[in-house]
């Protein structure tokens, strides 16, 4: 009699004859299909098709237009002059040349000169930069020589008086408002009240034209007498001076209250 182990062995051996080499669910290639393309293997068939996924996400991706390669990328602050913080167009000096002019000298921004005074002057060799905001009329000194008084500022609605004498006046009397100048070793004079000060230059060696202010502008508002406001503003901050901005805000608030 055949033992149970022998029966199991015969059963396993018989399976090789009953089970097909290719599973029923797998496709087979007949001799008649020799002229057709070979079917992809199992790995290629199981690889997911990502084209549908990419198409679905296409509208959700941020638009990134191609950047032109034949044009240089322009920096929006390409006009910024780092010493003064002013934006200047039509610059007459390169950044390297400006650095050379200011390398061996103390640079003091116009807005902090008052805090830098030692007595009635700024110690050592120094320089500053300002925008011409107002040209004064020609005046005559007690010695019969011509001079004028400019107003210069850094577009913060405050100005400093600049006295031009000698060839400093003669060589720059035709310059227009909005022009940016560098001033070297100006003479500082405090006013009688001691709250403000003025600057004076006497030679062309003390003044250097740098270019034209990008942000120079004049307030679009009107004074109480109906005349146009003449206050110089920074156009980056709007088209009105601080005073007319505050008046407009008060008027708007009043209208809202009435409503």
TrEMBL record:
<feature type="region of interest" description="Disordered">
    <location>
        <begin position="1"/>
        <end position="49"/>
    </location>
</feature>
<feature type="domain" description="Zinc finger Mcm10/DnaG-type">
    <location>
        <begin position="211"/>
        <end position="256"/>
    </location>
</feature>
<keyword id="KW-0863">Zinc-finger</keyword>
<dbReference type="Pfam" id="PF09329">
    <property type="entry name" value="zf-primase"/>
</dbReference>
<keyword id="KW-0479">Metal-binding</keyword>
<keyword id="KW-0862">Zinc</keyword>
<keyword id="KW-0235">DNA replication</keyword>
<dbReference type="Pfam" id="PF22379">
    <property type="entry name" value="OB_MCM10"/>
</dbReference>
<dbReference type="InterPro" id="IPR012340">
    <property type="entry name" value="NA-bd_OB-fold"/>
</dbReference>
<dbReference type="GO" id="GO:0005634">
    <property type="term" value="C:nucleus"/>
</dbReference>
<feature type="domain" description="MCM10 OB-fold">
    <location>
        <begin position="82"/>
        <end position="208"/>
    </location>
</feature>
<dbReference type="GO" id="GO:0003690">
    <property type="term" value="F:double-stranded DNA binding"/>
</dbReference>
<dbReference type="InterPro" id="IPR040184">
    <property type="entry name" value="Mcm10"/>
</dbReference>
<comment type="similarity">
    <text>Belongs to the MCM10 family.</text>
</comment>
<keyword id="KW-0539">Nucleus</keyword>
<dbReference type="InterPro" id="IPR015408">
    <property type="entry name" value="Znf_Mcm10/DnaG"/>
</dbReference>
<dbReference type="GO" id="GO:0003697">
    <property type="term" value="F:single-stranded DNA binding"/>
</dbReference>
<protein>
    <submittedName>
        <fullName>Uncharacterized protein</fullName>
    </submittedName>
</protein>
<dbReference type="GO" id="GO:0008270">
    <property type="term" value="F:zinc ion binding"/>
</dbReference>
<dbReference type="GO" id="GO:0006270">
    <property type="term" value="P:DNA replication initiation"/>
</dbReference>
<dbReference type="InterPro" id="IPR055065">
    <property type="entry name" value="OB_MCM10"/>
</dbReference>
């Amino acid at each position: 009699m055949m033992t149970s182990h022998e029966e199991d062995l015969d059963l396993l051996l018989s399976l090789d004859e009953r089970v097909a080499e290719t599973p029923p669910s797998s496709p087979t290639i007949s001799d008649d299909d020799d002229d057709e393309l070979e079917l992809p293997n199992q790995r290629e068939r199981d690889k997911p098709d990502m084209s549908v996924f990419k198409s679905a996400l296409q509208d959700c991706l941020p638009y990134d237009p191609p950047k032109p390669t034949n044009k240089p990328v322009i920096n929006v602050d390409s006009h910024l002059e780092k010493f003064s913080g002013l934006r200047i167009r039509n610059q007459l000096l390169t950044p390297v040349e400006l650095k050379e002019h200011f390398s061996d000298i103390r640079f003091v921004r116009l807005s902090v000169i008052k805090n830098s005074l030692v007595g009635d002057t700024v110690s050592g060799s120094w320089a500053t930069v300002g925008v011409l905001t107002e040209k004064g009329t020609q005046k005559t000194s007690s010695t019969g020589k011509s001079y004028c008084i400019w107003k210069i500022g850094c577009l913060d609605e405050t100005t400093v008086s600049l006295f031009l004498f000698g060839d400093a006046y003669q060589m720059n009397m035709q310059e227009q408002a909005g022009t940016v100048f560098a001033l070297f070793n100006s003479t500082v004079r405090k006013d009688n009240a001691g709250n403000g000060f003025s600057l004076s230059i006497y030679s062309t060696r003390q003044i250097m034209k740098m270019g034209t202010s990008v942000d120079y502008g004049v307030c679009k508002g009107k004074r109480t007498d109906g005349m146009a406001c003449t206050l110089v503003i920074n156009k980056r901050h709007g088209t009105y001076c601080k005073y007319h901005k505050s008046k407009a805000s008060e008027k708007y608030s009043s209208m809202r209250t009435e409503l």
